[in-house]
Structures are given as structure tokens and as C-alpha cells.
Design brief:
The structure is a homodimer. The first copy, chain A, is an alpha+beta fold. Chain A has 2 domains: about 160 residues, 2-Layer Sandwich (60s Ribosomal Protein L30, Chain: A), CATH 3.30.1330.100; about 70 residues, Alpha-Beta Complex (CofE-like fold), CATH 3.90.1660. Helices cover about 25% and strands about 25% of the residues of chain A. Chain A has 6 helices and 10 strands. In chain A, the strands form 3 sheets. In chain A, strands 1-10-2-8-9 form a 5-stranded mixed sheet. A 3-stranded antiparallel sheet of chain A has the order 4-5-6. A two-stranded antiparallel ribbon of chain A has the order 3-7. In chain A, a hairpin with a 4-residue loop joins strand 5 and strand 6. In chain A, helix 3 crosses helix 4. The radius of gyration of chain A is 19 Å and the shape is globular. Chain A starts with a strand and ends in a 24-residue tail after the last strand. Chains A and B meet through strand 1, strand 9 and helix 6 of A and strand 1, strand 9 and helix 6 of B. Strand 1 of chain A pairs antiparallel with strand 1 of chain B.
């Protein structure tokens, strides 16, 4: 097992709808005097994906309905934002203490349906990509075609956790890799079968990228090199807890 | 912002009660032709900490009580293991679908009270360290004394997550660093105040280390270099969700 390196990609400019993310990323890779190598994982913050896909909404244009107004009042939030949270979700999981947690249409459980006000611009918010696994796949294909390398792509977002303060970056989409590393059936040094251990390498990669990316400098992407993962196309979709096994509905 | 490197520490031998972890780690660092530098974070899997602290229990010596026997029957588990889970916890958070989630005496919410059967040896299990922040602090102090460097230590464990399959490594103890990076009050590129963003660098560091450590090869430690964090002694304790704000009790 070797070392892992996380290389933040500086200098990616403001992204607008229709921008070619692959070019912006490859330009940034070039500025780092880097060449992508087989096995590299390119991590992109969902926000630049959302912007490139036109998933930015002007908050003034949103007309909150009755349910949104009631929930906004209860939790002390902007009713227009809450209206968007409801539109982007299939279910409110918890709303309490000023926190609104939903299951999004993508199947993700997170605060505010993943709607983000930071680094977007005054009066606008970014919604999650409609299908982050597809976004990752599209980006991976273009990057692979232009570089001739076998790559993986992780689209990341910043999520809170139920029993800990703070947040970690997790994968909301991936391509070119299975999100879980399957040790199941393998044995440890004492012959004990590691039945249940399936490390979420996609989430750990997203978190490792965040350590290098930070938040204030606006760097939206990183390359993670040297990680062991299984190639495949299950997507983050395939890692979500099936509702019938969800103990925290 | 610079690059981050994760260096797994190979060749740490089986650990027994009373072993000097700092020496084992510094020997392994030496074998990597490495010298610890100011700011390096040493990540150790809790299991070697537990073993060094004598937190290994022979499962045959455990006499399950009535509550443990009932819960074990319901969830299809070894009643002696369930007895230990109950002894190590203050509350069962969920028990369903063959999964037992507790709040441990350390305040952690996790499966099986963090009791671990893998890589321990037949008939024995490892309990969590009594106070993982203290374990981290003790190790950090010895490492700093012997190297003359300012270091941080993270004690990690592998936790499941409520809405995703698989696991990630998280920090259960830390020293020499605050587990959360406090952006609160700072502003993003558009002047939007990042009030709520506090990345859990301790957890992301634990996850990054796991990417390099893996599971089967038994490597129990890594060095993470180049991460921005705040020095301090809040410990993982200070990052746990206060019960009154816990929406998933």
C-alpha cells in the first residue's frame, strides 16, 4: 500500500451555465504542472457542477406556498428558501431547532435539501444537480477522452451528521469507481471474516479533498491520487440506505 | 493552500497491554525514512490503543444478564457480546434489523458500542478506550517530547452512518488540534457569512488515513501531512452533539 496525495486545483474561475467543466479542470491541472494518471480521482464540489448545469435559482422569483410559509415560520427561515427545500425533496425527515432535514429527490438525506447560499452570489442559491451520478459520469467521460487515462470522478457536498457537530464532505455522485470497497468475505489476519466492513472510499475521498480545498478560498476541485478502489458504475445511488432498512426515518 | 500527503505506517507489530505505542510508531516512521514535522497529524486506529491499554476481553468470561439475552435473541447476536455492549453504553438508541446502536459511555453513537471482533484474536474482543481524547493526549505528549515537534494525534474508529451503506473512519479522540475548523464569522467570496460551516477536519483526517491504511493488511497508523487545523484541546468530546439538540435519539 502506498501513499496518498491530495492536490487542490487552484485558479478555476467563476462557473456559469453551459461552461465546460472538463476544460476548466484540465487547465487547472496544467497550472499545477500535473498530468492526470490512471487511477486518479477528480473530486469536484457540487456547486460548480450545479452552476454549469444551470441549477441556480434567483430567490426573489420563488413564491412560497402555505406549507413552506408555516414551516419557515416555525424554524425561523426564509419562506422562499423553504419552498425550494420542499420542491427539491420527497419528504421532511426532521424539522426542529431551526434545522430542516429532508430526503431529496436524489435520495440524499441532508439539511435544507442541499440548497446552498454560499459562494453563489447575492440573491441566488444553488440546487443539487438533478442526477449527480450522471454529472460525474459525463465529466469522467470527457476527462478520460481528453487525457487517455482511466479516471474516477466524485461530486462532493458538505453534509452535517446526526450525532456530531460540524460537517464533512461526502460523495453525492461518482463514476468510474464503486463508492464502497468490498472486503466482504475476505478475512483478517486472524481468519475472522470481515463480513460487514465496506469502507466508503467515495466519502473518504470527498473528505480528503475537502481538507485540501478548504472553504474560503473558493477552490472547487482536487485530484486524489493513490487510493485503492474498485472500478464500476454503481454510483452513490447504489450506496444509499434502502428505506426499509432506515432506522432513522 | 498546499498538497496533503497520507503516509501509512507499515510494520507495526501486534500490540499487547502495556506496550509503548509511541516507540512502535516512531520505529515505523523511521522505516518509512520519514521524520515527523511540525503540524503532522499521527492517526492511530483505536484498536492498537485499546490493546495497549488492556481493553481486550475474553468473550468466554462474560456472563450475559437477562436484558442482554433477550436483546441478543431478538437481534440474532451472541448474548455475551450484547452483554458487553450494554455494559459499555448508557442507552440503546436503536435495535432493529440485526443492528444494535448505542450511545457509549464516551458519548459516541455507534453500532455494538464500538466493540470489535476483527484483528483481535479468536475468542477476544476489543472495547473502546475508556477516554480516547486522553489516549490521544498521552500519545501526543510522548511523541512531541521524543521528536521535539508540535504534533496532533487522532484516534480513529470505523463507524456506519444512518442513511448510507458502508462505513467511514472517524475520530473518536484527538489532541493537539481542535476537531472542527471554525470558519464561523468569516465570509466567502461574495461576502456571504459562513456562519454554520465548521468542517470536521478530525473526521476527514481519520477518513483520509483509512484510505491509505486499508483493513486487511493490518496497518494501524498513518501520518497525515499538510492539513490546516486549529491547535487546541477540545477533544472529540467537544464535537459531540449535545443530547438536547439530538434530532435522532
Amino acid at each position: 500500500m502506498g501513499r496518498i496525495e491530495v492536490i487542490p486545483l487552484a485558479g478555476i474561475p467563476e462557473v456559469s451555465e453551459g461552461d465546460d467543466l472538463a476544460s476548466l479542470i484540465l487547465d487547472a491541472v496544467g497550472r499545477e504542472s500535473l498530468a492526470l494518471a490512471d487511477g486518479d480521482v477528480v473530486v469536484v464540489k457540487h456547486k460548480i457542477v450545479s452552476k454549469a448545469e444551470g441549477r441556480v435559482v434567483s430567490i426573489d422569483a420563488v413564491e412560497p406556498g402555505r406549507k413552506a410559509r408555516a414551516l419557515a415560520k416555525k424554524e425561523g427561515k426564509d419562506p422562499r428558501l423553504v419552498e425550494l427545500m420542499l420542491r427539491e425533496s420527497v419528504r421532511v425527515v426532521r424539522a426542529s431547532h431551526g434545522v430542516i432535514i429532508t430526503r431529496t429527490k436524489q435520495g440524499l438525506v441532508c439539511a435544507n435539501s442541499g440548497i446552498d447560499q454560499s459562494n453563489v452570489g447575492k440573491g441566488s442559491v444553488a440546487l443539487l444537480p438533478v442526477d449527480p451520478d450522471r454529472s460525474a459520469r459525463n465529466l469522467r467521460r470527457v476527462l478520460e477522452k481528453r487525457t487517455g487515462r482511466r479516471l474516477a470522478v466524485v461530486v462532493s457536498d458538505t453534509f452535517g451528521r446526526p450525532w456530531r457537530l460540524g460537517q464533512t464532505d461526502v460523495a453525492i455522485g461518482c463514476s468510474g469507481m464503486l463508492p464502497l470497497l468490498r472486503y466482504a468475505g475476505k478475512k483478517d489476519r486472524f481468519g475472522y471474516r470481515l463480513r460487514v466492513t465496506e469502507p466508503s472510499v467515495a466519502d473518504e475521498i470527498a473528505g480528503a479533498a475537502e481538507l485540501a480545498i478548504g472553504k474560503l478560498n473558493g477552490m472547487p476541485a482536487a485530484v486524489v491520487r493513490g487510493v485503492e478502489y474498485d472500478r464500476g458504475e454503481g454510483g452513490v445511488k447504489g450506496m444509499l440506505m434502502p428505506p426499509e432498512r432506515d432506522l432513522f426515518r
